[in-house]
Specification:
Elements lengths: L8 E5 L6 H11 L2 E5 H9 L5 H24 L3 E7 L3 H14 L3 E5 L4 H12 L9 H9 L11 E2 L2
Parallel strand pairs: 1-3, 1-4, 2-3, 4-5
């Protein structure tokens, strides 16, 4: 059996509708890797449209569980794809610290899409069974907390 390349965290940055999950699925197959997607977990645990009072604590729990599973996969020599957005500088800094503490390389990919196209994709996705529903008002609310990558943040742009 051939040895695996050093297990790596592949994290995907981008806002809702940017194509993160499509890209994450490609990476999952190409590497191969364990892909972890917070939206999919939220739908499985809390349904496609959980109210805010369920969503906020639920997403925290999901992220803790995903990180634990990622650590186990990395310890077993597997690549991990984190399909979660990393919308804030603080979340990206935390991601970098976590990878450094684990002694694991991190590759951060950035997907950027014009807003009109992202909103169109969200409308399409909302119509798909099993998708996490994002209302237009929720999109607007989440956009207020989105922080694009800043100069000096290492990343790989995805066309």
């Amino acid at each position: 059996m051939l040895p695996l390349a050093q297990p790596t965290i592949h994290a995907i940055h981008g806002f809702i509708g940017a194509g993160k999950t499509t890209f994450a699925r490609q990476l999952e197959t190409q590497l191969p890797a364990l892909r972890l997607n917070s939206d999919e977990w939220m739908v499985q645990l809390y349904g496609p449209d959980p109210p805010e009072e369920v969503f906020r604590p639920g997403i925290v729990r999901v992220n803790v569980l995903m990180r634990q599973l990622a650590e186990r996969a990395l310890a077993l020599g597997l690549h991990v794809v984190l399909d979660d957005g990393f919308w804030t500088r603080a979340s990206r800094d935390d991601l970098r610290r976590w990878a450094a503490d684990l002694g694991v390389p991190l590759r951060l990919y950035a997907l950027i899409l014009p807003e009109a196209e992202a909103r169109r994709r969200v409308r399409e996705r909302n119509a798909q069974p099993g998708s996490l529903y994002i209302a237009p008002e929720t999109y607007d609310l989440f956009w207020q907390g989105f922080e694009p990558l800043q100069q000096g943040e290492p990343h790989e742009p995805v066309p």
